[in-house]
Request: fold
Amino acid sequence: MIYLDHAATTPVAAQVLESMQPYFAGDFANASAIYEFGEKSRNVIAQARAIIAKSLRARPDEIYFTAGGSESDNWALKGTAEAYREYGRHVITTQIEHHAVLNTCRYLEQQGFEVTYLPVDEQGFVRLRQLEQAIRPDTILISVMFANNEIGTMEPIAQIGRIARRHGILFHTDAVQAYAQVPIDVGFYHIDLLSASGHKFYGPKGTGFLYIRDGVRTASFIHGGGQEQGKRAGTENVPGIAGIGTAARIAMHAMSERIYRETRLRDMLIHEITSRIPGAHLNGDRYARLPNNVNFSFEGIEGETLLLLLDAKDICASAASACSTGSAEPSHVLTAIGRKPELASGTLRMTLGEATTAEEIRLAADAVEENVKLLREVSEWKA
Reply:
């Protein structure tokens, strides 16, 4: 099998699984227990918090563990909206955000907030002038993803953060695809809140975190006990937290080498596709994109059919975000960058991982070329 869907999920790394094992049975104590048996659980949570904080150049008490990226996005938007609603009820985001942000914004609109959904250019970039023009006296939050989960474009986060800070507005970024893929310094980027998900970087599913800068107010997301500084009640997922901490540590240690390696393979795949297949349109910026993301729209084919043909050759890829698979509507991201429905429907996303090899890239390119040609023959497409 050639697995090229790492943006959807990644396998749990062997070291990560090993780090989790003791806390399922042997050291199973509740981290909130005051007796000594609970100390190991408390310690592993503290260690994971410190590892993740260091990776962001943040403080440990600014890291809050969650059940994943969608929860973190929900908490970031709902929590700050509730905490700052006395100062205003206007939120700014973009048209290409993950649905965890877009649907939360729609929920906020039902609660009396106003949301501006910024358009993007043909590469998927936010236009900074339009962002500034959208700011109002009652704007309390700007939420722009660090890198797009479908087309891989990396937004000008530092400039967006500076604009938000200059206007005294909180800035949240959904970094689910970017965290552990590229270096992130929350101070340099002027980030107030940041969401991440463990299963995107070889950690366990059902884990994530939300960075909340010290001094930023957020309403409690889950009411109950005093876990996560009283902000998110519920007995801690100690095995999961141990796992996400280990995954973060491994990712930070290997990041430079992985960026170099995956970027080379990514560019190799882009070259193979563009040089072999006419009518292949790269989605997202050619260079300011995630190291492992390749996304093409092909003229004259249907992407879902291409996926099935690739699956028959044991190649796993996707047509869009895993969260929108099965939708009959064109990708909202591709629509936002100006792809017409007939071209957007012929889209293939391939996302590389640490085990991807150059030989797999060549085999995948061969399979894509062969099956695009086959589908075009059936549809009688002409260049």
In short: The first strand starts at residue 2 and ends at 3. The CA atoms of residues 3 and 355 lie 9 Å apart. The mean pLDDT is 95.
